[in-house]
Amino acid sequence: MTDIIITQTAPVLVAIDISKARDEVLIAIADKKRCRRLTVLNQLDDFNRLITSLACYGRPVRVAFEATGNYHRALAYHLAAAGFELKLVSSVALARTREALHNSWDKNDPKDAQVILHMMEIGNEQFYHAPLVRGTNDIQELSKTHDIVSKSKTELWHRVVAPSCGTEF
Q1: I need a surface site. Which of 47, 77, 80, 149 has the fewest CB within 10 A?
Q2: Which intervals hold domain Transposase IS110-like N-terminal (predicted)?
């Protein structure tokens, strides 16, 4: 009779709440009850330390985070380059889920990491495409530049035209 060998393919779930200076990381492994919590500074050394610790699990790794301005871009690039699966969590969905789970709108980074992990477990996440890895960085930068120029044009238009219009209708 042959032996059947079943390998562990359940991914390691990593929820990251990203902020300007540091990121709160919550790591959940399928067969463990407790989660591992880390604080990662937005520095290359800490990114490499996180990537090394995630690679040591010997399982597929799925990382989810909320895109916050541009702060997520550096970490996301390094995680994608390391070969991890990246997911995005909607800011609105995160706020609503946090409010529903904790019966409060109060926000803090460790709590947000827990909510992101919960959203990963129920499959409420989106695909993330790293602009540098996908080659869409130039398009994204042009889009942001167009947005800034359009807002500046509208603001200038309102300054020039609005005062000359007067209050008569």
Answers
A1: 149
A2: 14-155
